[in-house]
């Protein structure tokens, strides 16, 4: 049998251990030690991360204040790599405030130059008021205080009427201090006695009334203007000089009788007037005449007879004289074509057509006009007792338009351009399908050219191109140069050629033809008559359409190939070492490009259209036929990634390539491709 014991709960009481006083002391020391280590660490970290700066102030002894965390020992300041505001101040100087940025810039020594405060200057004199000028700037009159004058040497000038001007250099102490200056000037006058015949005349000196003669008054050593006046007499004016402090007597002044005043009017006005043979002006005029004398007055006016008058005036007499001039008539016969043209003389209409004009013998403006014709304005001068004859043949507006447009113009770089008037001529771009050598891109396109234009007679040379881009080099082929000044420019892109044309337009003051974005041609301004590349239609019309309207196959007459004589610069035998294909038995004396303007021009007096270098045109490249209605002044498609190149070159020589219908697409520069310039005669609306 197992016995069971009963377990009962008892009350728990924790053991109470007394805290030793030694443990309390250890805890305090530990805390203090930790704080000391922390502070020391902060200080060490600050010292490791900080930079030392010494401030050198001018003047010495300026007080330095720093916004931000820093320490200083003597002149040494410790800063973290941060931005601080430094202020330096000292009595008598402006406070200097600077930003110290140690994150971006560090210098162990920083100079702080304080600017001294300005000073004031009090100027007084027992001769006040005296004008005061400081450093060429007028300040006022004494007594005077001039404030805020910069520290340093300054120039003072003192002026007063009747005294010698005085210049003085003053050292301004500045630093907010006020200085005093007392000034004294030396008199610059002497005493002079004036008398006149008759006496009792009024005397003024430098514009100030002094009294009646005889009189003694002050005159400046530097010169004074004296004026003596008396009714009925001329005013006597003179400049008088005298030694300061002296006494003298001026010679007696004999007064002259006053002049009379003549007011002269003529009908008509603007007559030339002489008095006693001397020219005095045109009517209407006022003039003075010596009193009590007879004067001869003559009046002259183109178209009128000479008129003479004699006159005598009393002293100070005012007299008005009006003269009616008599016309002097001459005759001019004007023979006018067309017979019904309107005529006006000096803006006044007369009868139409040929007639005899009776006019005063002076210059007249005669205008002859008719609708549809250019107005003619003539300056005529009829002669008395003589009949003159003039013949006038009015030009139609078209005749006048072309008479004002020269056949040849010169570009700013010296290129000659010839005027062309297609007059609506219709022709085909491209070539017939059965033409030997025809290529697939020569689809026939019917076009009509109306708008007149100028085209360069030669290709652009290296020298002309380098007026724009001086560093351009057209390069060479196997040691044979393409870069001589007189050779055509090559190795240039279409973009280069277009931008050159814009530069030419700018030099001549014309609107630019090519609109440019980010140094690239982005669009075309067809309203411009600035320089440009020729359109393909213009190029083809000048090169292949003869004056009789026939379309040529080659630059030479007929359809045979190769040419029997030298026509232009093609791939000839001299280039056999350079080119894979050359024309047999053809020698143009140039293995690469020849000088521009070499060989004979074509029928329209244009050089090298068919050879030398192929040429960029303005058009984007496309292959599209048009055999119905002609395309007016065809410009090519509106967009594309290639441009049309026309004409053969020194590197081409096959039958196909020498034809005037030969065309190529191009994007990049080539050693055998250049360009010639063109431009419209006028902007749209200005054309005939």
Describe the overall structure:
- With 688 residues, the protein is mainly β.
- It folds into 6 domains: 46-113, Immunoglobulin-like (Sandwich), CATH 2.60.40; 119-182, no CATH class; 189-254, Immunoglobulin-like, CATH 2.60.40; 260-324, Immunoglobulins (Immunoglobulin-like), CATH 2.60.40.10; 331-399, Carboxypeptidase-like, regulatory domain (Immunoglobulin-like); 408-680, Alpha-Beta Complex (paralog of FGE (formylglycine-generating enzyme)), CATH 3.90.1580.10.
- The protein contains 6 helices and 52 strands.
- The protein has a 4-stranded mixed β-sheet. A 4-stranded antiparallel β-sheet has the order 10-9-12-13, with no helix packed on it. A 4-stranded antiparallel β-sheet has the order 18-17-20-21, with no helix packed on it.
- Strand 35 (364-369) and strand 36 form a beta hairpin.
- The longest helix is centred in the first third of the chain and has 29 residues, at 21-49.
- Mean pLDDT is 89; it is low at 1-10.
Topology:
Elements: H1 21-49, E1 51-58, E2 63-67, E3 70-73, E4 76-79, E5 83-89, E6 96-101, E7 109-113, E8 119-124, E9 131-134, E10 137-141, E11 144-149, E12 152-159, E13 166-172, E14 178-182, E15 189-194, E16 196-197, E17 202-205, E18 208-212, E19 215-220, E20 224-229, E21 236-240, E22 247-249, E23 253-254, E24 260-267, E25 272-275, E26 278-282, E27 285-289, E28 294-301, E29 304-312, E30 318-324, E31 329-337, E32 342-345, E33 348-350, E34 355-360, E35 364-369, E36 376-380, E37 387-393, H2 397-403, E38 408-410, E39 416-420, E40 425-429, E41 445-449, E42 453-456, H3 462-465, E43 476-477, E44 480-481, H4 494-508, E45 514-517, E46 520-524, H5 536-544, E47 614-620, E48 626-632, E49 643-646, H6 655-658, E50 663-666, E51 673-674, E52 678-680
Parallel strand pairs: 1-7, 8-14, 15-22, 16-23, 24-30, 31-37, 41-48, 47-51
Antiparallel strand pairs: 1-4, 2-5, 3-4, 5-6, 8-11, 9-10, 9-12, 12-13, 15-19, 17-18, 17-20, 20-21, 24-27, 25-26, 25-28, 28-29, 31-34, 32-33, 32-35, 35-36, 38-39, 39-42, 40-41, 42-52, 43-44, 45-46, 47-49, 49-50
